[in-house]
Amino acid sequence: MAEPVMIAAQPAPLDLDLARTALVIIDMQRDFLLPGGFGESLGNDVTLLQRVVAPLTELLAAARAAEMLVIHTREGHLPDLSDCPPAKLNRGAPSQRIGDPGVYGRILIRGEYGHDIVDELAPAAGEVVIDKPGKGAFYATDLDAVLAEHGITQLLVTGVTTEVCVHTTTREANDRGFECIVVSDCVGSYFPEFQRVGLEMIAAQGGIFGWTAPSGVLIAALTDQSAASPSTTVPDTAVS
Ligand code: C5J
Fold first, then answer.
1. Helix 53-65, helix 215-228: angle, nearest 10
2. Pocket of ligand 1 (CB under 6 A)
3. With contact defined as beta carbons under 8 Å apart, do 142 and 130 qualify?
4. Where do the structural domains in the chain lie, given as residue ranges?
5. Quick one: which atom of ligand 1 is closest to the CA of 75?
6. From the CA of 165, how far away is ligand 1's center (Å)?
7. pLDDT single digits (tens) 171-229
8. What sign has the CA pseudo-torsion 33, 51, 68, 16?
9. What is the pTM of this model?
10. I need a surface site. Which of 41, 61, 190, 198 has the fewest CB within 10 A?
11. How far is the CA of 159 from the centre of ligand 1 (A)?
């Protein structure tokens, strides 16, 4: 098994044990990212989220090549809305609420086109997909059990939006004892100032609830590990 690798991160370098690390991709759903979707209908500029797709696609490819556990999440609710508390349901302008008809089907309802993940980041066969009714990925899901089953202790946290579901999930994970590295160019917000401050908040005060690092640092670590894995290493016997 590969040794932990030290990565450059904020606020300080961190030893990453890639064998016990999972890539968590939060809510990269059409309802949030596509023009005409729920996010845009609320007056948001979706291009600010779409810029996450390219670096995250590269990070996902590197994670898959390194055979890292990949977990996708989707925020959404049952068609009868029985898992959506009134306090969440009754928010926002009428006709733009969860369950209302939208351009991509009923807004944030499981099974609808808009609820699913954008094509570029579609889960591969065998990857875990966690459907979550809340902002945090641990609330009312089996994420904790999945991570325990795989012996995971560190998380690469990516997705949208930085200050809502990424923050909530990272805080939940931190409280459960996971070390979280939030990948700075693979998380996105509709609000540039929330993006900047959201990342700063994580790493402030000595890393109050996590670390931040750009995807390039993580891709380099994953690529090094893939190159050193037994399936690609030249066998000892062939080395003179
Ligand atoms: C929001 C999310 N912003 N995935 N959801 O409602 O951040």
1. 20
2. 27, 75, 135, 160-161, 164-165
3. yes
4. 5-35+42-74+123-228
5. 4
6. 5
7. 999 999 999 999 999 999 999 999 999 999 999 999 999 999 999 999 999 998 777 66
8. negative
9. 0.94
10. 61
11. 10
